[in-house]
Structures are given as C-alpha cells and as structure tokens.
Amino acid sequence: MRQDGAVTQPVGDVPHEPSSPDQPAEPVYQPPQIPQAPQAQPAPQSWGAAPIAATATTEGTAVVGLVSAILSWLVLPVVLAIVALVLAGSAERSIDGSAGAKTGRSLVTATRWIAWIHLLVVAMIIAFVAAFVVAVAVAR
C-alpha cells in the first residue's frame, strides 16, 4: 500500500482494472515489435503465360548435348557430334525463350566447342588417310 491509501501491485502483475474509478489503469508494458521482412508475393498468372520458376533450372537438353559431345569421342564419332550440335541449338532456343527461368548457356557453349573440335579432328584424320592412300597409289 502506498501512503495515499491506494493498493499497489507487484512489478510483474498487470492490472486489468483501475484501482479506483477516478484513477486510470497503469500502462501495460509492450515489448518492441521486430519488423518483419515483407513476404514476396507470386506474380499473377495470365492466360497463356509460362509460369516463372522461383529458381533457375538447368536446361536438360544442354546436359544431354554435352554428354553426346563427350561420348562422340568414344562411340559413333560423327553421328553423336552432329546430334550434340543439334541438341545445343535446341537448348539455346529453349534457354532464350525461358526469360531467365532456365540456365545452361555455358553447357551449350562447351557442347559446341567439343563437337566442332571433334568434327575437325575427324576431318583431319580422313584427309590424312586419303592423302596417305593417294601417296601409296602414286608410288606404285
């Protein structure tokens, strides 16, 4: 009790009603609010529009093209190199049309380099063998 006769409450208690009708209730302590980051709202979909992926994904055709280009050195040399070049073109068109939802442009570039170098090496081998056959035929 205070000297004026009013009843005081311990520090931890929060009064729900004023002690007397002419005395207002003590203010209730409110901890400070921590600001929350605004939540990202998904973009509204319109008819015919492709959904935008939350994260970019790697174009599968680019991966298959790269694997084909690498395998062209071991199996079906010219055929797989040409298949890899076709897949690289298809993957590039798909990546360009995805508005950033698909990645893999570096895979497409690597596929093209590997396939073209392979075709160049095969062409050089064919030219060397042809020159060798001609040289042997002329020597006889």
What does this structure look like?
This protein is mainly alpha-helical and 140 residues long. It has a domain at 57-139. 48% of the residues lie in helices and 3% in strands. It is built from three helices and two strands; from the N terminus they run E-H-H-E-H. A two-stranded parallel sheet has the order 1-2.
Share of β-strand residues = under 5%
Specify the structural class: mainly alpha
Order of helices and strands: EHHEH
Question: Using only CA atoms, what is the Rg?
Answer: 38 Å
Question: How many H/I helical runs?
Answer: 3
Q: Please, what is the average pLDDT? A: 81
Strand order of the largest sheet: 1-2
Q: Low-confidence stretches at least 5 residues in length (pLDDT < 50)? A: none
Find the count of extended strands (DSSP E, 2+ residues). Answer: 2
Distance between the termini: 129 Å
What characteristic shape results from the CA principal axes? rod-shaped
Share of helix, binned: 40-55%
Strand count, sense and closure of the main sheet?
A: 2 strands, parallel
Q: Please identify the oligomeric state.
A: single chain
Which tags fit this structure?
140 residues; mainly alpha; two-stranded parallel sheet; rod-shaped
List the helices and strands and how they pair.
Blueprint: E1 57-58, H1 60-71, H2 77-96, E2 102-103, H3 105-139
Parallel strand pairs: 1-2
Can you summarize this structure?
By secondary structure, the protein is an all-alpha fold.
